[in-house]
Amino acid sequence: MRNLRVFEQKINLLFKNRQLLENVFVHRSYLNEHRNFYLPSNEKLEFLGDSVLSLITSLYLYKKYPELTEGDYTEIKASIVRTESLAEAALNLDLGEYLYLSRGQDRELGRKNVNILADCFEALIAAIFIDINFEKAYDFVLKYLFRSKLDTIIKNNLYLSPKSRLQEYTQAKFKLTPKYTLLEEKGPEHRRIFKVEVSIKNQKYGIGEGKSKKEAEEAAARKTLEKMI
Protein backbone atom coordinates (compact mmCIF):
# COMPACT_ATOMS: atom_id res chain seq x y z
CA MET A 1 0.00 0.00 0.00
CA ARG A 2 1.43 3.35 -1.01
CA ASN A 3 1.63 6.42 1.22
CA LEU A 4 -1.42 8.66 0.71
CA ARG A 5 0.73 11.71 1.43
CA VAL A 6 2.51 10.99 -1.83
CA PHE A 7 -0.85 10.80 -3.58
CA GLU A 8 -1.94 14.14 -2.11
CA GLN A 9 1.25 15.71 -3.42
CA LYS A 10 0.59 14.18 -6.82
CA ILE A 11 -2.86 15.78 -7.13
CA ASN A 12 -1.78 18.90 -5.23
CA LEU A 13 -4.56 18.65 -2.64
CA LEU A 14 -4.29 18.32 1.13
CA PHE A 15 -7.11 16.59 3.00
CA LYS A 16 -8.13 17.67 6.49
CA ASN A 17 -9.98 14.40 7.10
CA ARG A 18 -7.40 11.67 6.53
CA GLN A 19 -9.90 8.87 7.05
CA LEU A 20 -12.17 10.27 4.36
CA LEU A 21 -9.38 10.04 1.81
CA GLU A 22 -8.50 6.52 2.95
CA ASN A 23 -12.18 5.55 2.68
CA VAL A 24 -12.05 6.34 -1.05
CA PHE A 25 -9.96 3.22 -1.60
CA VAL A 26 -11.88 0.67 0.50
CA HIS A 27 -13.52 -1.85 -1.81
CA ARG A 28 -16.36 -3.90 -0.35
CA SER A 29 -14.44 -7.15 -0.98
CA TYR A 30 -11.82 -6.09 1.58
CA LEU A 31 -14.46 -5.94 4.31
CA ASN A 32 -15.45 -9.55 3.70
CA GLU A 33 -12.02 -10.55 5.00
CA HIS A 34 -11.63 -7.72 7.54
CA ARG A 35 -15.05 -7.41 9.18
CA ASN A 36 -13.74 -5.26 12.03
CA PHE A 37 -12.05 -2.73 9.76
CA TYR A 38 -12.63 0.80 11.04
CA LEU A 39 -13.91 2.18 7.70
CA PRO A 40 -16.91 1.24 5.53
CA SER A 41 -16.68 0.54 1.81
CA ASN A 42 -16.40 3.42 -0.65
CA GLU A 43 -19.87 2.74 -2.09
CA LYS A 44 -21.66 5.72 -0.49
CA LEU A 45 -18.85 8.03 -1.58
CA GLU A 46 -19.11 6.62 -5.09
CA PHE A 47 -22.87 7.30 -5.05
CA LEU A 48 -22.31 10.93 -4.09
CA GLY A 49 -19.40 11.30 -6.50
CA ASP A 50 -21.59 10.20 -9.40
CA SER A 51 -23.97 13.10 -8.71
CA VAL A 52 -21.17 15.62 -8.19
CA LEU A 53 -19.55 14.53 -11.46
CA SER A 54 -22.87 14.89 -13.28
CA LEU A 55 -23.23 18.45 -11.97
CA ILE A 56 -19.64 19.35 -12.86
CA THR A 57 -20.09 18.04 -16.40
CA SER A 58 -23.40 19.82 -16.88
CA LEU A 59 -22.02 23.10 -15.55
CA TYR A 60 -18.91 22.89 -17.72
CA LEU A 61 -20.95 22.22 -20.87
CA TYR A 62 -23.47 24.95 -20.05
CA LYS A 63 -20.73 27.54 -19.53
CA LYS A 64 -18.34 26.57 -22.34
CA TYR A 65 -20.76 25.41 -25.04
CA PRO A 66 -23.89 27.58 -24.76
CA GLU A 67 -24.68 27.05 -28.44
CA LEU A 68 -25.35 23.32 -28.02
CA THR A 69 -28.78 21.86 -27.32
CA GLU A 70 -29.99 19.97 -24.26
CA GLY A 71 -29.90 16.77 -26.33
CA ASP A 72 -26.26 17.45 -27.22
CA TYR A 73 -25.43 17.93 -23.53
CA THR A 74 -27.01 14.59 -22.70
CA GLU A 75 -25.08 12.73 -25.42
CA ILE A 76 -21.78 14.44 -24.53
CA LYS A 77 -22.18 13.75 -20.83
CA ALA A 78 -22.86 10.08 -21.48
CA SER A 79 -19.74 9.80 -23.63
CA ILE A 80 -17.37 11.35 -21.08
CA VAL A 81 -18.65 9.92 -17.78
CA ARG A 82 -18.90 6.31 -18.98
CA THR A 83 -17.12 3.66 -16.95
CA GLU A 84 -14.23 3.25 -19.40
CA SER A 85 -13.36 6.97 -19.34
CA LEU A 86 -13.42 7.10 -15.53
CA ALA A 87 -11.29 3.95 -15.29
CA GLU A 88 -8.76 5.42 -17.72
CA ALA A 89 -8.46 8.55 -15.57
CA ALA A 90 -8.08 6.36 -12.47
CA LEU A 91 -5.31 4.34 -14.13
CA ASN A 92 -3.47 7.52 -15.06
CA LEU A 93 -3.54 8.51 -11.38
CA ASP A 94 -2.49 5.00 -10.22
CA LEU A 95 -5.56 4.78 -7.99
CA GLY A 96 -5.41 1.00 -8.17
CA GLU A 97 -2.17 0.99 -6.20
CA TYR A 98 -3.96 2.40 -3.14
CA LEU A 99 -7.00 0.10 -3.14
CA TYR A 100 -7.96 -2.09 -0.19
CA LEU A 101 -8.99 -5.34 -1.89
CA SER A 102 -9.64 -8.89 -0.83
CA ARG A 103 -6.92 -11.39 -1.67
CA GLY A 104 -9.20 -12.87 -4.31
CA GLN A 105 -9.86 -9.54 -6.00
CA ASP A 106 -6.16 -8.77 -5.90
CA ARG A 107 -5.30 -12.07 -7.59
CA GLU A 108 -7.98 -11.44 -10.21
CA LEU A 109 -6.34 -8.13 -11.16
CA GLY A 110 -8.88 -6.03 -9.28
CA ARG A 111 -6.44 -3.12 -9.30
CA LYS A 112 -7.00 -2.86 -13.04
CA ASN A 113 -10.71 -3.72 -13.04
CA VAL A 114 -12.56 -0.94 -14.93
CA ASN A 115 -15.63 -0.98 -12.68
CA ILE A 116 -13.63 -0.89 -9.45
CA LEU A 117 -11.41 1.90 -10.77
CA ALA A 118 -14.34 3.95 -12.08
CA ASP A 119 -16.12 3.68 -8.72
CA CYS A 120 -12.92 4.70 -6.91
CA PHE A 121 -12.53 7.76 -9.14
CA GLU A 122 -16.09 8.87 -8.37
CA ALA A 123 -15.51 8.26 -4.66
CA LEU A 124 -12.44 10.50 -4.86
CA ILE A 125 -14.49 13.29 -6.46
CA ALA A 126 -16.96 13.04 -3.57
CA ALA A 127 -14.16 13.14 -0.99
CA ILE A 128 -12.69 16.29 -2.52
CA PHE A 129 -16.15 17.86 -2.59
CA ILE A 130 -16.85 17.02 1.08
CA ASP A 131 -13.42 17.75 2.55
CA ILE A 132 -12.40 20.78 0.50
CA ASN A 133 -15.07 22.33 -1.74
CA PHE A 134 -16.95 22.10 -5.01
CA GLU A 135 -14.49 24.35 -6.85
CA LYS A 136 -11.57 22.01 -6.11
CA ALA A 137 -13.65 19.01 -7.20
CA TYR A 138 -14.53 20.89 -10.40
CA ASP A 139 -10.87 21.71 -11.10
CA PHE A 140 -9.85 18.11 -10.38
CA VAL A 141 -12.35 16.71 -12.88
CA LEU A 142 -11.32 19.22 -15.55
CA LYS A 143 -7.66 18.36 -15.08
CA TYR A 144 -7.80 14.59 -14.77
CA LEU A 145 -10.92 13.55 -16.68
CA PHE A 146 -11.72 16.21 -19.25
CA ARG A 147 -8.33 17.69 -20.13
CA SER A 148 -8.34 17.92 -23.92
CA LYS A 149 -10.51 14.80 -24.25
CA LEU A 150 -13.91 16.44 -23.84
CA ASP A 151 -13.14 19.27 -26.25
CA THR A 152 -11.92 16.69 -28.81
CA ILE A 153 -15.15 14.69 -28.42
CA ILE A 154 -17.23 17.81 -29.06
CA LYS A 155 -15.08 19.19 -31.90
CA ASN A 156 -15.25 15.90 -33.81
CA ASN A 157 -18.88 15.09 -32.94
CA LEU A 158 -17.73 11.85 -31.32
CA TYR A 159 -20.60 12.10 -28.82
CA LEU A 160 -23.12 11.47 -31.56
CA SER A 161 -24.56 7.98 -31.97
CA PRO A 162 -23.09 5.92 -34.85
CA LYS A 163 -26.32 6.40 -36.84
CA SER A 164 -26.15 10.18 -36.46
CA ARG A 165 -22.46 10.27 -37.37
CA LEU A 166 -22.99 8.05 -40.41
CA GLN A 167 -25.89 10.20 -41.61
CA GLU A 168 -23.80 13.38 -41.28
CA TYR A 169 -20.97 11.73 -43.19
CA THR A 170 -23.10 10.38 -46.06
CA GLN A 171 -25.06 13.61 -46.43
CA ALA A 172 -21.81 15.57 -46.68
CA LYS A 173 -20.15 13.13 -49.09
CA PHE A 174 -23.03 11.69 -51.17
CA LYS A 175 -25.92 14.08 -50.46
CA LEU A 176 -28.08 11.18 -49.28
CA THR A 177 -28.89 9.17 -46.17
CA PRO A 178 -28.07 5.52 -45.42
CA LYS A 179 -30.72 2.84 -45.87
CA TYR A 180 -31.28 0.27 -43.11
CA THR A 181 -32.73 -3.12 -44.05
CA LEU A 182 -33.93 -5.68 -41.52
CA LEU A 183 -32.39 -8.98 -42.63
CA GLU A 184 -33.48 -11.26 -39.85
CA GLU A 185 -35.49 -11.39 -36.64
CA LYS A 186 -35.08 -14.51 -34.53
CA GLY A 187 -35.38 -15.92 -31.05
CA PRO A 188 -38.24 -16.09 -28.52
CA GLU A 189 -40.32 -12.99 -27.80
CA HIS A 190 -38.42 -12.09 -24.63
CA ARG A 191 -34.99 -12.63 -26.23
CA ARG A 192 -35.37 -11.30 -29.75
CA ILE A 193 -32.25 -10.82 -31.90
CA PHE A 194 -32.39 -8.43 -34.86
CA LYS A 195 -29.95 -8.34 -37.78
CA VAL A 196 -29.77 -5.15 -39.88
CA GLU A 197 -27.73 -4.19 -42.93
CA VAL A 198 -26.69 -0.71 -44.06
CA SER A 199 -26.57 0.21 -47.73
CA ILE A 200 -25.43 3.47 -49.32
CA LYS A 201 -26.02 4.21 -53.01
CA ASN A 202 -27.20 0.60 -53.38
CA GLN A 203 -23.88 -0.69 -52.07
CA LYS A 204 -23.99 -2.93 -49.01
CA TYR A 205 -21.81 -2.09 -46.03
CA GLY A 206 -22.01 -3.11 -42.37
CA ILE A 207 -24.26 -5.70 -40.76
CA GLY A 208 -25.15 -5.37 -37.09
CA GLU A 209 -27.07 -7.38 -34.51
CA GLY A 210 -28.88 -6.28 -31.38
CA LYS A 211 -31.68 -6.98 -28.92
CA SER A 212 -33.77 -4.31 -30.64
CA LYS A 213 -33.99 -2.98 -34.18
CA LYS A 214 -32.48 0.31 -33.02
CA GLU A 215 -29.55 -1.44 -31.33
CA ALA A 216 -28.90 -3.48 -34.48
CA GLU A 217 -29.00 -0.34 -36.63
CA GLU A 218 -26.47 1.38 -34.35
CA ALA A 219 -24.18 -1.66 -34.55
CA ALA A 220 -24.46 -1.73 -38.35
CA ALA A 221 -23.76 2.01 -38.56
CA ARG A 222 -20.70 1.60 -36.34
CA LYS A 223 -19.27 -1.12 -38.59
CA THR A 224 -20.00 0.98 -41.68
CA LEU A 225 -18.15 3.96 -40.20
CA GLU A 226 -15.15 1.74 -39.48
CA LYS A 227 -15.07 0.77 -43.17
CA MET A 228 -15.66 4.22 -44.60
CA ILE A 229 -13.69 6.58 -42.38
From TrEMBL:
What are the names of the required cofactors?
Mg(2+)
What reaction is this protein's catalytic activity? Endonucleolytic cleavage to 5'-phosphomonoester
Q: Give GO terms for biological process.
A: mRNA processing; regulation of gene expression; rRNA processing; tRNA processing
Start and end residues of each RNase III domain? 4-133
Which is an annotated GO molecular function term of this record?
double-stranded RNA binding
Q: Which residues bind Mg(2+)?
A: 46, 119, 122
Identification of the protein by name: Ribonuclease 3
Please report the organism this UniProt entry assigns to the protein: Candidatus Roizmanbacteria bacterium RIFCSPHIGHO2_01_FULL_39_12c
